[in-house]
Design a protein that fits this description.
The chain has 181 residues and is an all-alpha fold. It has two domains: 10-78; 84-178, no CATH class. It is 72% helix and 0% strand. The chain is built from five helices and no strands. 10% of the residues are buried.
Length: 181
């Protein structure tokens, strides 16, 4: 006895063929979708690289110009490379300068105290301090310290710090030597 749909040319065979065809069509459709997705991903990557190149070119062009760089939404911040050796060198040179200025301010504080005959804070004590302000600029040049990186603000800071150190030592020496106890 033969069951229905199991023999040759029966309904089950035609259903199997149709389901196989649908399965193959589904596989082909999925394969095409994957290929399209891959192409879209490659295109997006390429667009992203092109935008990065454009940003780099804009930044390079704007480095010579004054003003702000207009950056798109996809801007990615890149920190400049940090040169640790150069940083340490600059800090050492700056430290040497301030140690030298500290030592000179002690001497100028003593000189200001010696020139003030009545131990009264007067203009005579300011003369050596004000005249020695040029040493702040000349000493680094004389000792060949590398201070080319100094800006106007750093120079203003150095002059102000030197002046206040001299003034502080002058006050300390005046109080210490005039009233020892």
């Amino acid at each position: 006895m033969e069951f229905r749909g199991t023999g040759r040319g029966g309904k089950k065979d035609s259903r199997d063929l149709k389901s196989r065809e649908r399965g193959l069509e589904e596989k082909e459709r999925k394969l095409k979708e994957r290929e399209l997705e891959e192409k879209e991903r490659r295109l997006k990557d390429r667009e992203k690289r092109l935008k990065e190149r454009e940003l780099e070119l804009e930044i390079k062009e704007s480095e010579g110009k004054k003003g702000k760089v207009k950056v798109g939404e996809d801007y990615e911040f890149r920190a400049p490379e940090f040169d640790e050796k150069a940083f340490k060198f600059r800090e050492m040179e700056e430290g040497k300068l301030f140690i030298i200025l500290f030592a000179i301010s002690i001497g100028m504080g003593l000189l200001a105290y010696a020139l003030n005959p009545y131990n009264v804070y007067g203009l005579l004590g300011f003369i050596p301090i004000l005249m020695s302000m040029s040493l702040v600029y000349l000493i680094p040049r004389f000792l060949n310290l590398d201070i080319d990186h100094y800006t106007k603000w750093k120079w203003a800071y150095a002059f102000l710090l030197y002046f206040l150190m001299c003034l502080g030592f002058w006050i300390v020496f005046t109080d210490a030597f005039s009233n020892p106890f």
